[in-house]
Amino acid sequence: MIGVFRERFGAFGILIGAIGLSLIQTNACMSIFAKTEIKDSKTMAKNVWTADEIPDQSGRTVVITGATSGIGKEAARVLAGKNAKVIIGARNMEKADTAIAEISSEFSEANISARPIDLSDLKSVNTFALNLKADLNRLDVLINNAGIMMCPYAETADGFEIQLGTNHLGHFALTGLLLPLLSSAQESRIVVVSSMAHKAGQLDLADLNWKNRTYNKTRAYCDSKLANLYFALELAQRLEEFDSNPLVTAAHPGWTATELQRHSGVAGFLNNFFAQRVEQ
Asked: Out of 153, 215, 221, 230, which one is annotated catalytic?
């Protein structure tokens, strides 16, 4: 479906196709739920998952990138409330301090802090990881959440296209650097936040940095989300060879009203009608 809209309407068509597919999937799920509820409403009620079901996280350390707003901040809030030690990786430390203050006001005993990291700069990623390895003897959860979406063309500090460099390559490097800490923890996890937008991705391995093509910011975003999934799949397969291997998961968080859409006027506007709240 997305492919058809892309062919007919270009970048805008990708967005419209994604909306349509999302609505179709939502309607299909709703119809299934409705039928199941008629048969056994009690069973369906039990299957509605909420954050309340997360067990106590005492003794566990969690690193979340991009947790100064949106779903990253909500994840930090929930996990801090469950007694995990939460470390926010943030590009803007002023926003990180604000997020920490808000979470600490809700959970007075929260063990939450922030450290600077710029995922578009591999030197910054390396420094962040080295400092963590100096201070921690293990890491239980890494949530690769930070991202940018449909922004104008730019390059990372290392010369990569900005969306692929930030959304994929920065997290790729960070995960590799933190693998020793993750492997030192029992039942550790790596969470890769991708998107349904990967369905419109078509990675051009001969021109990843858009040097030989007219830049398409929507397509570049979709490519970065496809790269996230390729990475998660390959990493999971490679880690199967080791006894103390972290569990690798990938997630599509749904269309959520966050700052991610700030570079897309259409998506930002449609947030008012289709997007879910971060609390959901």
From this structure: 221
Residue 221: active-site member: yes
Sheet of 111-116, strands arranged across: 111-116, 85-90, 61-65, 141-144, 189-193, 247-251
Residues 6+ apart with CB under 8 A from 62: 76, 79, 84, 85, 86, 87, 140, 141, 142, 143
pTM of the full structure: 0.77
Which residue(s) pair with 63 in the sheet?
87, 142
> Quick check: 220 and 149 in contact, CB under 8 A?
no
Extract the tokens encoding 242: 């080791």
Question: CA 251, CA 1: separation in Å to the nearest integer?
Answer: 21
pLDDT tens-place string over residues 138-195: 999 999 999 998 889 999 999 999 999 999 999 999 999 999 999 999 999 999 998 8
Cα 167–chain centre separation: 9
